[in-house]
Design goal:
This is Luciferase-like monooxygenase. By secondary structure, the protein is of the alpha/beta class. The chain has one domain: Alpha-Beta Barrel (TIM Barrel), CATH 3.20.20. It has an 8-stranded parallel β-barrel, surrounded by 7 helices. Helix 1 runs parallel beside helix 11, helix 3 runs parallel beside helix 5 and helix 6 runs parallel beside helix 7. The radius of gyration is 19 Å and the shape is globular. The two termini are 31 Å apart. The mean pLDDT is 93.
């Protein structure tokens, strides 16, 4: 019999894209991310992750490991990590050295989430990878990377220094069932990107749990879902703030990407019916409203998925409104106050 979880039983974490807002620079975005991470730490969030994306005007987290170091250096106890590094864009040894360095600087606070998508468009992927077939090597690249981060082996001809012996926790990330099955096979924690690709969430979680093989990393499956959350004092205020979020997704649909825009009257968004339906599908796991509204919908989500952890993404233009959203959400969960 599955024990039903309450939100207060599980931790909550944050996914940040180092969002560039209208009129601001990447430098402004980095300062904003640090301020938000400090807020999240004080509120008891467990993790603060950055995602690798490229060639996007609203996202400044392309050099993910550099940004992780900046934020880890400005915080004290919150775990800081990648959600994730798009491994086919990199040599596994390079990532092992980068995250080995981060772990040496900030012990027991670094997470390494790995994805197999490019995190960008096809042309930019070619500029990054030179060879798009590299995604086919994802399972072997993951194992190579884990080996570099594993026990010190002086006989190895190639070693990650720093990196070896660091045992940085490795997660597999996905928006389909592929990485869920690989995570189950390798006995690694799994995170699903339901904040932009909700279609296969339930199937992926089911496969991860049913096929899980205990490992030296995990004795039993551990799954996290990333979803969109915008909380405010009232449902109406939250819906208004969420129009910035709608504009981001409309920009993706129309291939007209811009820095994050201020909220607008929803009637001014001028989307057609096809765009509205696409937006609704992409936003299936988006929770917008007052704290009471969000709490009820989040509890229903937890009832349906039984995940071990929830990570939130929040495309909120105003910094103070975003902090307020964090403050409203945090008390609903098991906050990390005694680490």
């Amino acid at each position: 019999m599955i024990m039903q979880k309450r939100l207060s039983d599980i931790p909550v974490s944050v996914l940040d894209l180092a969002t560039i807002t209208q009129g601001q620079t990447p430098a402004d975005a980095f300062k904003r991310s640090l301020e938000l991470a400090q807020e999240a730490e004080g509120l008891g969030f467990l993790r603060y992750w950055f995602a690798e994306h490229h060639n996007m005007e609203s996202v400044a987290s392309a050099a993910t490991s550099v940004l992780i170091g900046y934020v880890a250096g400005g915080t004290k106890i919150i775990r800081v990590g990648a959600g994730g590094i798009m491994l086919p864009n990199h040599a596994p040894l390079v990532i092992a050295e980068q995250f080995g360095t981060l772990e040496a600087l900030y012990p027991h606070r670094i997470d390494l989430g790995l994805g197999r998508a490019p995190g960008t468009d096809g042309l930019t992927a070619m500029a990054l990878r030179r060879n798009l077939q590299s995604a086919d090597n994802f399972p072997s690249d993951v194992m190579e990377l884990i080996t570099y981060l594993g026990p010190r082996d002086e006989a190895a001809r190639v070693r990650a220094i720093p990196g070896e012996g660091s045992d940085v926790p490795v997660w597999l990330l996905g928006s389909s069932t592929y990485s869920a099955q690989l995570a189950a096979h390798l006995g690694l924690p799994f995170a699903f990107a339901a904040h932009f690709a909700p279609t296969y969430l339930e199937e992926a979680l089911k496969l991860c749990k049913q096929n899980f093989q205990p490992s030296q990393y995990l004795p039993q499956p551990y799954a996290m879902a990333c979803i969109n959350v915008t909380a405010a004092g009232t449902d109406e205020e939250a819906r208004h703030l969420a129009t910035s979020f709608y504009q981001v997704f409309l920009g993706l649909i129309r291939n007209n990407r811009k820095p994050l825009q201020p909220p607008v009257d929803e009637a001014l968004l001028d989307w057609n019916e096809a765009e509205r339906l696409t937006l609704q599908q992409m936003m299936k796991y988006s929770f917008i409203g007052s704290v009471d509204t969000v709490q009820k919908s989040l509890q229903s989500f937890l009832d349906n998925t039984n995940v071990n952890e929830i990570m939130i993404a929040s495309h909120i233009y105003d910094l103070e409104a975003k902090k307020k959203s964090y403050r409203l959400i945090a008390p609903l969960f098991n906050r990390q106050t005694n680490r």
